[in-house]
């Protein structure tokens, strides 16, 4: 007798929708709310205080509530306006640090990338966006005069610089069976802190970042570099790389790249350019960056002077094989099975990251929308703003420009009082200027002195915004309050 199989238990009735799923019309309604809040934020950029009038305590009270066990639905979005109102605004009068301006078309690209939710790790995980990343890299390499360079996008200059030095280490002093071979990296004293972190993380030891005193113009002196390399070789150490600044964080000084490349080639060293802040200026003043096409790797933060929303950094390199020597380690499950040059393409063999967000889409959209010409015009405009500020400072008897700078950063200080108190007085001026809220400046140390620093990397900045810097500093200076 054959047994009839008992019927399979019927599945539990499913809820109308999985709990996290929302209908597309609901999504569209949410999008309208977010869109309206985004537009409102952009509309109030000029009128809102640069630094929101909030305190740590108030921001905790507003944004650090208990975890919601039950969802609030659409009213969860109510908080967005408060988030905007308690945020720094990126208008043209924010001159602190090196802040890009969050170009809005690029922000839409970022949003769309999140909706698509591709993994920018390989062509198979996001065919369109993988090709877009390669395309954008090619456009930028060509625009910088480095045609033929390959590259990847990453989170920021710190990571791009770390990756550049990781490639240098693998190229010039790869670890052997007994461990890391070690090595010395050279840079000027004006070099960004990310380089110290990079040598530490690479296990070279911070003491093996040889910081060579910058010259009077805050640039690396090739003769001093040559001497430092010779001293290290004489002491039995292994020089591996030189970092050339393509715009120092403080003054925007650009190291003499061509001369540094010449020293490095004679010594068989890798050359990495830290162009996180400044190398975008090569789009308009390539002569400042002579030798760039001969370096081994370079970083460029698109979220700085290409005005992109965070995060978006570019690492370019001459030799993709060098990137693979540093980063290729492929588990069986991830290996590409395609021999097609496009379809088999994997990014994770050339970067630290495996899963990666699509950073290329915003850049692609922004560049296509505005065109390279508009970016060139904005960068040239920002350099012009810095030159205007330098002239205004030089025309004021109580102000002194402290460092030359070919890019868009201006360092200066108020010198209308007792020179022995200048550092303290300028620190107090900075505090008052930022508290007044019309412009925002940051501080730096140049030749051991406290200075005020304005850096223009915002596509919205106007000449009037730049004039406001001098007006505000003079208004905050001691004689104005006396
Ligand atoms: C010259 C330079 N290098 C590296 C960095 C680090 O970049 P990120 O903040 O994107 O990590 C900065 C940041 O300001 C910089 O100005």
TrEMBL record:
Biased composition, class Pro residues, residue ranges: 1-18
Domain of life of the native organism: Bacteria
Signal peptide (UniProt feature, chain positions): none
UniProt keyword annotation of Lyase present: yes
Keywords from the named record: Decarboxylase, Lyase, Pyridoxal phosphate
Cofactor: pyridoxal 5'-phosphate
InterPro entries: Aromatic_deC, PyrdxlP-dep_de-COase, PyrdxlP-dep_Trfase, PyrdxlP-dep_Trfase_major, PyrdxlP-dep_Trfase_small, Pyridoxal-P_BS
Region of interest: Disordered: 1-20
Family: Belongs to the group II decarboxylase family.
Protein name according to UniProt: Pyridoxal-dependent decarboxylase
Organism: Nocardioides panacihumi
